[in-house]
Every structure is written in structure tokens, then in C-alpha cells.
């Protein structure tokens, strides 16, 4: 059974931590709910009770089991007119085992969740949380897709590549394959620009990239991802990381100020201050390596097309 470690940040909001290969969609969703509710003037009773439970578990250094998270989500979702209890119970396990989505290359808002589109969309709508991505195509390539009658979605482009794998000279397939292979981070300049335009200030949402889900927000016209890797559990001043094309960014705290490792000894000792800088640099390198690892794991059909050429 999956369990999650907990950190209570400086704003007294508990945050679930991501273990390796853990169900990151659930973590991103629950953290988004907790952070969004902390901004609300009228917090729901189910969230208040769950926050109290997580805070108590964190104090006793215990982990929260997945069943507790299911219970919280079910309690919050019961009474929805658009979903019956059976549909809720059938959908929740999908969130743990892996939610498949079909992002559109011309729209940063994700609305296609395959067989579970209706249920997932209703759940996100209930919690007032949107799911975004930044894998946006250049406008000229989007025009070519329209001209060839190809839907501007990831799955449609993959289907086109598979159907033309025996036609390596097909120009449309070559353009799609080139785009996918050259944008393995799944964050394009156009995508980051559209994300920044579409997210409202201080909106709490979910961000998808390379089969990974993160809680995100927008602050001072910049997108930030919530840092949930369990490796940072003792670095409580590391809360957000700015979303950037090159990943060369500094971590920030809950107030969006540059992260520092808080310790009285570090304040007094210049050598320990130098170590703090080294620690932050190492943290950045770890995050870059994680992103590269996710990119390599995301095996796509376009690689098959390239080999066939």
C-alpha cells in the first residue's frame, strides 16, 4: 500500500511528499486542494479535518496511507450530482495506478482523460482545479496538421506516425517526428508563454510534463512548481521551483523568496554559508537530472519512425 511522507510548510499548510515511482497525480491533486483551500475565506470542513489529521501525523513523524487520502477525496466528493458514489470509487484507483491524458498541442488546458474524461473533469471542476501542460506546437506546424485533417492532439499525431511508419518520406510524419524528438522536455517556448497568459495570479493548479504531475501556481507573472521530492524533506525552505525552459533556476520558499537553509550555525559561520550555496546548487542539479531521466523514460513512437527511416 502506498504511503506518503508529510511536511508542514511555514504557512502551516501540510504538503504530501513524492516517493520514487509514487502516484504523482494524487499527490499533485491533494496538494493543490490543500493549498487552494488555504487561500479561501471559507474552508470546507472536510479539508479542515484532513489538514488537522496530516498535521498530527507529521508531528508524530508518521506517514499517511493511501486509504486515508481516498477517504478524504470520497468524503469531499460525495453529494456531487454529476458523479455517483460507484463512479467515484471506480475512478480513484486510476489516479494511483497512472492517469493517461491526451494533451492538445494548441491548448495548455488538458480536458481529454480517455475513458475517464467525464469523471476526472467533474472531480477537477468540483475542486476548482485545472490541469495544464506546456507542450505547444509552433503555429506553422499546427496549420499543417489542420491542412492534413490531423487532430492537434498527442494521440492523433502518434497514430499518424504509426500509420506512416512504412512511408519514411512522408513530409508530414517527418515534421511531427522532428518536433516530438526535439522537444523531449515537453515544454516549449510557446507553451510557457501560453501558460503564463492563461493562469490567473496565485491560481493553484496541476501541471503535466513527461508523464509526471506537479502542483503549480503563478506568482508575479511567473509559473512555479511545488517541490515534493522526498529527498528535500529536510530542506523546508525549498518550496517552489520556477518553471523555465533550461531548468537553471533557484528554489524559492513559500513567500517566493530565494530559498535558504535555516540554521543558527549557518548564520554565524561563513564556511557553512558557503556550504548552503553548494547544497542549493546540488539540489538544482538533482532536479535537472530528474527531468532528464523522465525525458529518457518517455519512449515515443516517433523514435520508431526515425529508426525506420
From TrEMBL:
Domain of life: Eukaryota
InterPro entries for the chain: MINDY, MINDY_domain
Any single Pfam family the record assigns to this protein: MINDY_DUB
Any one GO molecular-function label of the UniProt entry: K48-linked deubiquitinase activity
One Gene Ontology cellular component: cytosol
Residue ranges annotated for the MINDY deubiquitinase domain, each copy included: 5-256
Gene Ontology biological process: protein K48-linked deubiquitination
PANTHER family named in the record: NF-E2 INDUCIBLE PROTEIN, UBIQUITIN CARBOXYL-TERMINAL HYDROLASE
The protein, known as: Protein FAM63A
Protein species of origin: Pichia kudriavzevii
Amino acid at each position: 500500500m502506498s504511503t506518503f511522507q508529510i511536511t508542514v510548510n511555514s504557512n502551516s499548510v501540510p504538503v504530501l511528499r513524492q516517493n520514487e515511482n509514487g502516484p504523482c497525480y494524487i499527490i499533485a491533486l491533494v496538494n493543490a486542494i490543500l493549498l487552494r483551500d488555504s487561500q479561501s475565506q471559507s474552508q470546507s470542513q472536510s479539508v479542515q479535518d484532513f489538514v488537522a489529521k496530516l498535521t498530527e501525523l507529521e508531528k508524530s513523524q508518521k506517514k499517511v496511507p493511501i486509504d486515508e487520502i481516498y477517504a478524504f477525496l470520497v468524503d469531499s466528493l460525495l453529494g456531487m450530482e454529476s458523479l455517483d458514489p460507484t463512479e467515484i470509487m471506480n475512478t480513484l484507483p486510476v489516479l494511483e495506478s497512472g492517469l493517461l491524458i491526451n494533451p492538445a498541442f494548441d491548448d495548455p488546458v488538458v480536458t481529454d482523460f480517455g475513458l475517464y474524461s467525464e469523471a476526472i473533469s467533474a472531480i477537477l471542476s468540483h475542486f476548482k482545479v485545472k490541469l495544464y501542460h506546456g507542450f505547444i506546437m509552433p503555429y506553422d506546424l499546427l496549420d499543417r496538421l489542420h491542412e492534413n485533417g490531423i487532430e492537434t492532439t498527442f494521440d492523433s499525431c502518434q497514430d499518424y506516425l504509426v500509420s506512416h511508419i512504412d512511408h519514411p518520406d512522408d513530409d508530414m510524419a517527418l515534421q511531427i517526428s522532428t518536433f516530438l524528438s526535439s522537444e523531449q522536455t515537453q515544454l516549449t517556448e510557446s507553451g510557457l508563454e501560453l501558460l503564463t497568459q492563461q493562469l490567473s495570479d496565485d491560481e493553484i493548479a496541476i501541471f503535466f510534463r513527461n508523464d509526471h504531475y506537479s502542483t503549480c501556481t503563478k506568482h508575479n507573472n511567473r509559473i512555479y512548481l511545488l517541490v515534493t521530492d522526498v529527498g528535500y524533506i529536510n530542506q523546508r525552505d525549498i518550496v517552489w521551483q520556477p518553471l523555465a525552459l533550461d531548468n537553471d533556476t533557484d528554489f524559492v520558499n513559500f513567500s517566493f523568496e530565494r530559498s535558504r537553509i535555516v540554521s543558527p550555525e549557518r548564520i554565524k559561520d561563513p564556511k557553512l554559508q558557503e556550504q548552503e550555496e553548494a547544497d542549493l546548487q546540488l539540489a538544482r542539479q538533482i532536479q535537472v537530472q530528474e527531468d532528464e531521466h523522465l525525458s529518457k523514460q518517455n519512449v515515443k513512437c516517433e523514435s520508431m519512425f526515425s529508426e525506420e527511416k
